[in-house]
Amino acid sequence: MYDVVVVGAGPAGSMAAKTAAENGLNVLMVEKRQEIGVPVRCAEGVSKAELANFVEIDKKWIAAEVVGAKIYAPNGAEIVLAEEHAGNEVGYILERKIFDRHLARLAVKAGADVIVKTAAIGLERKDGTVKVKLKRMGEEWEVEAKIVVGADGVESRIGKLAGIDTTLKLSEIESCTQYLMSNIDFDPDYTYFWMGNEIAPGGYIWLFPKGERIANVGIGVMPSKAKKEAKEYLDDFVDERFKDGKIVEVVAGGVPVRGEIETAVADNVMLAGDAAHHADPITGGGIINALKAGKYAGIVAAEAVEKKNYSAEFLRKYDELWKNDFGKTLRRNKILQEKILSMDDETLNKLVGSLAGKNLGEMSVRNITIHLIKANPRLLWDIKDLFF
Ligand SMILES: Cc1cc2nc3c(=O)[nH]c(=O)nc-3n(C[C@H](O)[C@H](O)[C@H](O)COP(=O)(O)OP(=O)(O)OC[C@H]3O[C@@H](n4cnc5c(N)ncnc54)[C@H](O)[C@@H]3O)c2cc1C
Questions:
Q1: Could you tell me which residues come within 8 angstroms of residue 35 by beta carbon, excluding any fewer than 6 positions away?
Q2: 347 and 293, same structural domain?
Q3: Residues 153 and 275 in one domain
Q4: Alpha carbon nearest to ligand 1 atom 18, residue
Q5: Is residue 55 assigned to a domain?
Q6: Which domain holds residue 222?
Q7: Distance of alpha carbon 210 from alpha carbon 313, whole angstroms
Q8: CA 287 – ligand 1 centroid, Å
Q9: Is the pLDDT of residue 187 over 70?
Q10: pTM to 2 decimals?
């Protein structure tokens, strides 16, 4: 019998396990892969300031540090968000293979048990607790828990088993492909973003430096707008721009861009991170929200165990915590994402052009959008109330 079983050892799971264990709970974290942190399905970009709220920064899992971002309109016009404008929002490119393992180790240090190559395949609630069915190399067994934290990523099985509505429509998943490319030229001080309906319909292409002449080069597209696979768009782009580049790793995955879900809890169960669609609908970034949600889930689990109350009603405290923190941003950025989806390249050119030469302050979606609304009131009038 465990107080908490955490399913999935990504950022959300490890943070939930660590927090629950630090609060004195008896915790088991299970990970279906044989190694925590691989394969990496991430461009690994994260804000310096936000990350420092959760973990002591260790150079071992920082691949690169950037000081700004370069954004390109469909017509090639460039805006540079340089250090003095980018503030703390840009920052590190992680080595997630090492980072995810480091987080899991922190959970273990706090007292959590961890087992790998073990998938959660079933849930059964009985007499106020829950039996979690586990499977490892053909062997099946059950553990009992008061609470299960489903931190099992975008295709969350725990969400479905618990009866939480986490279905994603085709229009709510950004389809991504990414190459780790070596032998390419770029300025390693900057992240790069290219927009345009021809090159990345409904999304963008990114380059996140990971060292000298090596970077994550990836694409996200909305399948509803795309005429071909994400990979084909990316191939066209890298063939043209990075002719001598060598692909040393390939990643494919989906990012939920549904926005805020109504609830991430059911009796005995909380979902955190991608499992609860906590990734940002505009940027696709989900590491920080996964860490936040994991921490909140760990805190609420400790309160629930203390009060011996594992009902959905009690666990709604967890909904309140994550919604108060970043629920509004998810809602707002979902509306903004839909607005951007409706724009043609001419409009995108106009928007990017209107930012040229402006002092943008910190590089947040909110801040950039406020500048865009001020510069283009007629184009963006209908969303102004969301941002002022
Ligand atoms: C191409 C791409 C690029 C991205 N780039 C960025 C970026 O630059 N910055 C950023 O912030 N975010 C980015 N994201 C999003 C980010 O990767 C996720 O938001 C983040 O990893 C979510 O963390 P998590 O802990 O919720 O889930 P995950 O990291 O997905 O971890 C879930 C874990 O659960 C395990 N699991 C699943 N099912 C079971 C089961 N039944 N039993 C046991 N274990 C199970 C999985 O093996 C996995 O280890 C990107 C995503 C993609 C696809």
A1: 116
A2: no
A3: yes
A4: 286
A5: no
A6: 64-88+171-256
A7: 44
A8: 8
A9: yes
A10: 0.95
